[in-house]
Every structure is written in C-alpha cells, then in structure tokens.
Amino acid sequence: MTTRDLTVSPFDPAAASPEARLAVGRLLVACHAFAYPDDPPLLPEREAVSLTHVTPGEATAHFVVWDGEQALGWGSLDYHLTQNRHAAHARLLVHPGQRRRGLGRELGRALEAVARQEGRRVVTFATTSQAPAGEAFARTLGAEAALPMRQSQLVMAEVADSRLDAWTTRPDGDPYRLHVWGRVPDEFLPRTADMMMVMNTAPRGDLEVDDWTITPEMIRAWEGMIGDAGEVRFLMAAEDTRSGELAGYTEVFWSPDRAALVYQGATAVRPSARGQGLGKWLKAAMLRHVRAHCPGARFIRTNNANENAAMLGINVALGFTPWASLTEWQVRLAGV
C-alpha cells in the first residue's frame, strides 16, 4: 500500500467504537515501547481510555491514519477555550514501522488546519532524545527549541536514610505541616487550586504562553482521569498553620500495572515561602511515602527546565541523574 492510499481522518474518541479506540491505544503503546524499550510497557486499554479525556474548558481535535483496522499514525491538538487563546499544544505519533512515508507531514497539516481555524498563532509540542526522529521532524517544520529540559531518574534504593532524615527535620516551632492526599479534601480544594498556580513562576524559556488559571473543577476532572487511567496520584502539600495557606506542594503518579516506575509531577513553593527548606522537605517526605505506599517502585523520573537551577539543584542533591533530554518546541503560524 502506498502513502497515497492512506488518508488522515478526523477521529472522535468519545463517539468511536471501543475497537477503534483500542487500535489507537495499540499505536501509542508501540511508539512508547520503541522510544522507551526498558520501561514497563504501557497498556493499550488504558491508553484507549485516555484518548477520551478532556480538561474542563479545553477542546481536543484528533486525527488518525488508518490502514484497514490498524492505526498507523495519530495526532491531537489541545487548546483552551478561554485561556491562552493564541496557543495550542500538539502531539503526533507514527508507528515505528511506518515512518518516512510522509504520514507525519500529513498529520501535521491536519493539526495546523485546526490551529488556524481556531485562531491559534503558536503551536507547541515536545520531543525526547529517546526518539531522535522527533527533533529532526521539528526542524523540518521550522520550529524553535523554546524550552530545553532535562529528564532525570532516581534509583530509590540508593538514597540514604540519613539524607532523608536531614531534609525532613524541621526547626522547633515550625509553623508548617504536611498533608498527603489521593483525592484533595473538599475543604482544601480552593486552596489547592490557588497553590497549583505557583507553577506559573516556573521557567518557560522562550515559550509564548501566558499564566494559567487552575480551578477546583479542573482538579476534580484530573482526579477522575487519573483514576480512569489506572494510576494513583499522591499530592503532598505544606500548610502554613498561621494562615491556612498552602505554601508548596509536590505530586507523583504511579500505576500498580507498571509498578517499577514512578513519575514525579510538579514541585513548587510560593516565592514568599522560599529559603526555608520546604522544597527539600516535600521531596524527601514524598520519597518516604512512595517507599511505603507504592510496592515494587524502584525508580522516580522527573523533568526540569535546564534553566531551573533551584529545582535541578534539589534533585541532584537527592540523587537524580541525567536520563534523557526533552525539548518543548513552538511553531509560529504566519498569517494568524
């Protein structure tokens, strides 16, 4: 079959048959296994479910290249309807055995058409050094490497208890206390949304994006999506007992089906509370929590902007070492 026989088709995961969603899930699994052959494998059923997830206030357009009932390529464009209305984020994958046939270019054109239709002048997407073809493709698009990042990995067994003891020891009369939640309690939900927006202070490199507003509705939706994906999310927050304000947080994601690997999500401390060791405390306390509540976990993987010296310093001191490089790219669409 030639490339001319293959067409890019719009795809609605919510309306598609379970078999069609599963076919795309198998494609996502194959692409991940090609880039990360030593990782615990993804599960196609879980990936199929994730295709239906949409954050409140956002829209997603999907496209698939079909060869009969097999999905050879997939792309999606996420864009918010009320925030950052100039920008969109793309994902694009082609089956490892079907590359260099122009399928990526055709999917890219379909995503660009949606971006233009929605008035988005900036499209961002990410690549990893684990799949070098992604960077080469980005350069053919004239994309700008706007935010270089380091992906680091921690071998949990190599972290000394003495280091964790030092980082979790707090001064007498310390006004901060830690909470850890799977589902954020209702009374903390507005405060958690406010705290999460501290990530707006994280380095963005040259990305042309504005601050994001996080809402309680978003958090509840994300919690539901995490559960649908078979994952466990632990969020640990530091509360200032003098005011009740949440001063910082860290979060991890773990799946019992892929038990060896834990993904570190955001870690942030409010600028007004920095310099008190809260970041180290949160990271060390979370590591102990993972050891106790994630059986079989061996590694923690995290991403940091290369320019985020403060968080990189904490991670290196804890024992994270370079594992891969990631790049957040952006394409400016002329005439939008």
TrEMBL record:
Family annotation (InterPro entries): Acyl_CoA_acyltransferase, Bact_Acetyltransf, GNAT_dom
The keyword tRNA processing is annotated on this UniProt entry: no
Cross-referenced PROSITE patterns: GNAT
Entry superkingdom: Bacteria
Residue ranges of every copy of the N-acetyltransferase domain listed in the record: 6-161, 186-336
Pfam family, one: Acetyltransf_1
Sorted UniProt keywords: Acyltransferase, Transferase
Annotated Gene3D superfamilies: 3.40.630.30
Name this protein carries in UniProt: Mycothiol acetyltransferase
Source taxonomy: Bacteria, Thermotogati, Deinococcota, Deinococci, Deinococcales
